[in-house]
Amino acid sequence: MADETLSLKKAFSGHGGFGVDETTMAAMVAKWRKQPDQKSRFRNDFSGFFTNIGSIEKCEDDYLLRLKTEFSRFKNIMVLWLMHPWERDARWMHHVMHKSYPFTVIVEIACTRTSEELLGAKRAYQALFNHSVEEDVAYHIKESYSKLLVGLVSSFRYEGPQVDNEMAKWEAKALGNAIKSGGSGKLIQNEEVIRILTTRSKRHLKATFKHYKELHGKPIEEDLGANLCLQETVKCIDKPAKYFSEAINTAFKEGADKPSKLSLTRVIISRADVDMEEIKETYHKQFGVKLEDMITKNTHGHYKDTLLTLIGK
Amino acid sequence: MATISVPNPVPSAIEDAEKLRKAFQGWGTDEKAMIAVLAHRDVAQRKQIKIVYEEQYKEKLLKRIESEISGHFERAVYRWFFDPVERQAIMANIAIKNKVVDFPVIIEIACVNSSNELLAVKQVYQSLYKHSMEEDVASHTTGDFRKLLFALIGTYRYDGDEINTELAKTEAKILNDAITKGEFNNDEIIRILSTRSKAQLLATFNCYKDAHNLSITKALSSKTPNDFVIALRAAIRCMTTPTKYFEKVLRDTLQKSGIDEDTLTRVIVMHAEKDLKEIKELFQTRANMTLEQAVAKKTSGDYKNFLLALIGN
Predict the structure, then answer these.
(1) Is the pLDDT of residue B131 over 90?
(2) Residue A20: which H helix or E strand, with range?
(3) Is the ipTM value over 0.90, yes or no?
(4) Which of A69, A108, A195, B254 is most buried (most C-beta within 10 Å)?
(5) C-alpha angle B23-B29-B33 in degrees, rounded to nearest 5
């Protein structure tokens, strides 16, 4: 009985875990069929979840909400999995407008998708919300990084092989000058920085970042200060696998907040068919542990099974 | 409606290619024969002629044309030859690479086309020049002009009819505030003009007119006419009343002293297969003479004959 209680408690645990253990729960329903006292004893024993009010054990509202979230992890991932990638991206971007997702999601989508994929996402956005994503970003996001975001989301980058190396060197210098002259507050609104980051092709930018490192002896990310938007932009363009691997890691950290946890689902679903192998390798190198092991350890139930399948275990 | 006239029945591409070949051979060029063919064939026919000519005579048709004729005539024929999408990409590139960026061309292309037409131009631009149009516009402009042109060309507007009347009122007020303060390069003006759908903008401008008894373009022109304000007005007029806009451009260049052949060529070549008929009709009521008369007065030689053929003489 003690074992059963413990495993059922674990199964219902919404704290810190990702997902719930549906199989154990279903088994308990079978085991405790027609035994309401068992259930009553369980409720009395599970003090975090239930409190006694009068003669009944009431669910803590807080816990209920968390539990519902945990149950929906599997539902959400299944719905997202079925959706067209463009619609997914459009909906994720829309969430940012209404502040339920951090703005870095827009940077992520604008910078890691191909020009065709981003265009598709923009079309889906228009069909779903009767607005262009550019107008919504420009209108709803008024922070200092707004110009950069509008530029990133409007981009329709050249994707061919041609790179003008001389220009890349010149622009690496220009970036260096912008960094030297402005404080990091001003940097995010610097015209040249925005122009270079939002219009140049990704190949060109990679060459530019390489030249920057040769010129200044360190990667450009180190000189961007605490500027999160710029950091994420550079990372997404230059080393997307590293960006995704870090996003996954943040989700697993102790005390990670809701949006960070949601990024686990988002990253795995959106990259499963794209560069998951590379992300797994990068994750292993960076954090010294295999991604499948982290998932197995920290997630539960059908949600866990789906994640493991998606990463191609 | 188009103004060019194609003979019925139209000669085969082989006959046309032969005629052109004959026109090139020997001393000098038979310009009349060239015009008789090229100015009287539609896009598909011109394409066929090019294919057949190049197969038959093993040389690039356009290169041959360029070597046979020169000056304004040559520029007009060259620009005329392409299909509208490629033509706009080529003209955008010419405008950008000019010593001073020819901003009306960029504004016309950005604002007259639908979202998908503009996208097609950008795609062809990328394949021709191995750069995105956005990166070229941005790297060849600075300051306020860059802000405006980049925003106009980079956007992928919602193309639908949905409008929000409350928003139109609010944004009409925002525009008015900026205009009364004389802050034309204000971020809000650029945001509204470059991201909102055309339907929404029309609603906004109507609210503006209702509130102030003055159209927004008149309100803008009552202030000191610097280039930037001219650009703003051009953008607004291209989006709301393109026929009137082009009629005025033609009238300005044909009635003032001296003449800007590049502008004249541009408007006629870009509209002869589109809506030059409506522009012509409006011109006649405004200028008290036909477009043909005005062109004949201001131009001469083969250039004049070519333009007149396109205008539908």
Answers:
(1) yes
(2) none
(3) no
(4) A108
(5) 45
